[in-house]
Write a structure and sequence with these properties.
- By secondary structure, the protein is of the alpha+beta class.
- It is built from 9 helices and 4 strands.
- Strand 3, helix 6 and strand 4 form a beta-alpha-beta unit.
- The chain has a 4-stranded mixed β-sheet.
- Helix 2 runs antiparallel to helix 3.
- The protein binds zinc ion.
């Protein structure tokens, strides 16, 4: 009888701890998201969504997941890590590009296709172009990103014209920098 009572007491204590400790509550929230699976029509988009779910479950950043595919195989993956890395450039696409380039041991992702849960922001779009990725499939649009509080749309409009940014984007010391470019041009180097 005494043993039974102590077991009940232990169970009550455990429940109380779970309710009272904020960390335990976080555990419960994580469990709830972890159980969530979303299946897209496209298998790679399902993977990208899985990446995003993993990221938001761990509190890494926004709901942006990404996979990079070459010849039908996933060669890189990543999700938004802005909050956990304290890195405003750690968007899902950038993280996945870094991951794929390391995996393939190549800065050139020609022949690769990128799947991402949200339409790439200007920074990621241009990173994708720099990486020579063949094609991009995205789920949510820039407007959808804005609807959940991200500034992609604002930045996307800025990209419409650099002249509109003349107060923000100022050219100085062009000659000195051209000198640097000349040093680079004259030396043996690899163009990419
Ligand atoms: Zn981005």
């Amino acid at each position: 009888m005494k043993k039974k009572l102590s077991k009940i007491m232990a169970a009550v204590l455990l429940v109380l701890l779970c309710v009272l400790l904020p960390q335990t509550r976080v555990c419960y929230a994580e469990a709830a998201v972890k159980e969530t699976t979303i299946t897209a029509e496209n298998e790679y988009m399902t993977e990208a969504i899985g990446e995003a779910l993993d990221g938001i479950t761990r509190g890494h950043g926004g709901p942006f997941g990404c996979v990079i595919v070459k010849d039908g195989e996933i060669v890189g993956r990543g999700h938004n890590r802005v909050l956990v890395d304290k890195d405003s450039t750690a968007h899902g696409e950038i993280t996945a590009i870094r991951n794929a380039e390391k995996a393939l041991d190549n800065h050139d992702l020609t022949g690769c296709v990128l799947y991402t849960t949200g339409e790439p922001c200007p920074m990621c779009l241009y990173a994708i172009l720099w990486a020579n990725i063949d094609k991009v499939y995205y789920g949510c649009t820039i407007e959808d990103n804005a609807d959940i509080g991200f500034r992609d749309e604002v930045f996307d409009k800025l990209a419409g014209g650099r002249e509109a940014l003349s107060d923000f984007l100022v050219c100085i010391d062009r000659d000195a920098c051209l000198e640097l470019f000349k040093v680079y041009s004259d030396m043996e180097h690899q163009t990419y």
